[in-house]
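Standup notes
- HV: blocked on the assembly model, inputs below
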Amino acid sequence: MRGAVLYAPGDVRVEQRQDPRIEHPTDAVIRLAATCVCGSDLWPYRGVEPVNKPSPMGHEYVGVVEEVGGDVRLVKPGQFVVGSFFASDNTCEICRAGYQSSCVHREPVGALGAQAERLRVPLADGTLVATPEAPPEDLVPGLLAASDVLGTGWFGAVAAEVGPGRTVAVVGDGAVGLLGVLAARQLGAERIIAMSRHADRQKLALHYGATDIVTERGDEGVARIKDLTDGLGAHSVVEAVGTQESMMQAIRATRPGGHVGYVGVAHGVELPGTELFYSHVHLHGGPAPVRRFLPELIDLILERRIDPGLVFDLELPLDQAAEGYRAMDERRAVKTLLRP
Amino acid sequence: MRGAVLYAPGDVRVEQRQDPRIEHPTDAVIRLAATCVCGSDLWPYRGVEPVNKPSPMGHEYVGVVEEVGGDVRLVKPGQFVVGSFFASDNTCEICRAGYQSSCVHREPVGALGAQAERLRVPLADGTLVATPEAPPEDLVPGLLAASDVLGTGWFGAVAAEVGPGRTVAVVGDGAVGLLGVLAARQLGAERIIAMSRHADRQKLALHYGATDIVTERGDEGVARIKDLTDGLGAHSVVEAVGTQESMMQAIRATRPGGHVGYVGVAHGVELPGTELFYSHVHLHGGPAPVRRFLPELIDLILERRIDPGLVFDLELPLDQAAEGYRAMDERRAVKTLLRP
């Protein structure tokens, strides 16, 4: 089969890869209907994370089950399924508490390379959620978004304790930040401040329910949030970038007793203990337990109550994955969908 | 009046200080029944925090109201009152959310020096809680503990989301950690692991409801907590020290999705963003909003359902404050009560 492989920073190639097969009785093999490029794929693409060897890429996927191992009970060949970027058994104590991305048996799907024609999914019964029937073609991008960026933005909002009456700020206007706005709206936030300086992303943020746009960053951005909240800061802040600046912006924009939900994969972040102590914020986040939210998110998408697929503003055949990475790296695209 | 003043690290003197008086119409002046030395007083005493000028010391206090300003409505001369280390209006939006120690009008009582015969308390109506009548003498130490260390340990347990069915670990066996154990028991924890290597403190921890004692620290301590929790870590960890080692010990001893409540005043702490991200813990803490808990804690003490006063294992006249500091610095005492 064909699949995307990162050879070095900036060097993504689509080439022939070995066909996946059932390796463990809990595996499934799926044929991908769609896959995509994640903001986190840009970390190694940009050389911020080392690339030590040619690495299959991709961890977002929807598709049709082709084959299952002998111990798979819930997932059946022919079903359309949505997965997430950590395989999880969904039965251990950590999974049952809603932290499937820290499952005691978790396996990163990214290492298997979902930007490909087919994918082996470990722990299929715990990891995959099937739709009641094959979804209409136009909903496939939304279901694909649920596989990571929607689930991640949603977790950011849940971790930030978004709810009715709350003022929410979202730091980061990538796909996760934009879907954090969508999640905040769905979770009943009263006011949603999107921090963005890009006209097209501001537009989508407003479409998803943002009530205010703040273009300033860093301390100026914090000052604007304070201005908008009687000097107190937001109740809830979703951090969807992962840098030192964005984390500090999120913490400082949150009122004492408020909540920061951080889902940007941290890179080079060191949190100063004394400032954090006196900030009085709640801090929670990490790799989103997308599996916790998948059933609900899939329903919302199939009922056409949310349209997370709008974050895909570039669609390419899998063979043009390199251009898909380039477009995101150069910020010409928010998110690239790839058709195998 | 006489009061304790820190001149330099290790140099505490009890000397004549100016008598406090009503300066603002929201002030009260109280005559102290008891005051004490806090673990956090040891930071400047040990030179970890700079001592730039002679500084009145102390921020824990109970006593009888002598005089109130013209705007004070709730607190009356003659009442026995308990306060906390930040004065707060108890009416602003932050106070109403339960974060009185971040009140928009907060004032640190420590700057006024509660290790003294009398004390001016700003924002008296918001800060002070009166007992229904003068308490029996033997309950005064417990009420004094409520002023900080009990309220702080309690906040640590609340911030760590302690509750029925939970396994709780407490890092730090000072007065705050010991009262964190007491709080965990009151809040219904199923299992309470006290981390302590001092026999007398272990004994008090067990008295307060600890079910297990772990003497190891750092990574070894974390490994012991994992051993005791099926390899997962505690649901809730109370951090009551404030060093890099204790914070990392707390974070690493907490299971994914679990909660760290940190109340040790952070000194030199830098939290590594990537480890925090993948830890999946909830982090909350800071200066305890003791005022939130005072009414409930006072009731528990007056009903003799808890005895937080046991943390005072040394009682001295105010004039011997220097010996009180020394005994705590040398770990001969957990906590020193001073009688003005």
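- HV (later): unblocked. Residues 2-148+289-339 of chain A form a domain with the Quinone Oxidoreductase; Chain A, domain 1 fold (CATH 3.90.180.10). Chain A has a mean pLDDT of 97.
- Next: hand off to the docking folks.
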